[in-house]
Amino acid sequence: MINFYKTEDGVLRKIDGMCHDCWVSVIAPTEEEIVRLKTEFSISGEFISAALDEEEAARIETEDGQTLIIMDIPFADRSEENEVYTTMPIGIITTSECIMTISLRENIVLRDMTAGLVKNVNTKYKTEFVLYMLQRMAARFLQYLRQIDKRTSHMEKLLRKSMRNKELIQLMDLQKSLVYFQTSLKSNESNLGRIMRGRYIKMYEDDQDLLEDVLIELKQAIEMCDIYSSILSGTMDAFASVISNNLNIVMKLLASITIIMAIPTMVFSFYGMNIGTESGTLPFAGTIWVPLAVSVVATFIAGVILYKKDLF
To answer: Which of 245, 268, 290 represents a domain boundary (last residue)?
Structure first.
């Protein structure tokens, strides 16, 4: 899908086709659209392949007057029972004619841009437009990190009431999401450092200030991600210890119950043996009250001992 946008009268509007100083948004392009990008827009095939590679790392490259910026953006994969956060690459290509973004699927950053939620964007100023987009990416990282923190706290409260596999699996998914975020944020920070040196795209004084703001938000996201990852790792270890301790308590209780139940069985087993008159008989074998009394006394004594040993 290829859409065209241009800033007119201070508002980003959707237009019908390609024009000078516009933004071309390419989302999940078909084979025909990829061919169109190569022929009509003269975009390098390597740039297109890199932008559509799900495993592509964040980097910057310049070729034939075109600059490719690969950045990782946050993505929330929602299902009926769970929500997993991950990252996906997006390619930002700047040419003398336009700005082009290429992504595998629609994402919230591009939706924010097209919906006009990012103020003061102007497709005429390419560097500024790119930086506003990067700032929105950093803001979305921060937003998702706060959501992860809230969900972690919610899962902790549920696990304190009842240890269930469902909540533990959700905590594992959140931990995996933080690993993805950590890797992507550090790659993005490295990319912004290259941009700041001004070797790939031309920077003006106002652009430098905006880039510094983006870097500040990105570093804040990295710090938050490190903190939340450490907290979640400690939480998982603590709950693993709690689960192991609960299992030990249950096993001790079951062992104690087994001992208590074995005593009457042993006593009545002795009195239930088939002993003839030549071998003699057990004392008081003719009455049930004696073995019953012995069983009760022995069980009571064993129970007191186990209780003092803190096995109940």
So the answer is: 245
Within this chain, do residues 26 and 154 fall inside the same structural domain, yes or no?
yes
Which structure tokens are listed for 88?
A: 């996906």
pLDDT, tens only, 135-159: 888 888 888 888 888 888 887 777 7
The one-letter code for the residue type at 146 is R
3-state secondary structure of 75: strand
The answer to whether 58 touches 134, Cβ cutoff 8 Å, is: no
Sheet of 59-63, strands arranged across: 11-15, 2-8, 22-27, 98-103, 83-94, 66-78, 59-63
Confidence (pTM): 0.75
* 4, HSE (Cβ side, Cα atoms, 13 Å): 13
Q: Residue 23: is it exposed, middle or buried by C-beta count within 10 angstroms (0-12/13-18/19+)? A: buried
pLDDT digits (tens, 9 = 90+) for 68-80: 888 888 888 776 5
Residue-range definition of the domain harbouring residue 162: 2-245
Run of H or E including 66: strand 66-78
One domain for residues 192 and 83: yes
Residue 296 and residue 211 in one domain: no
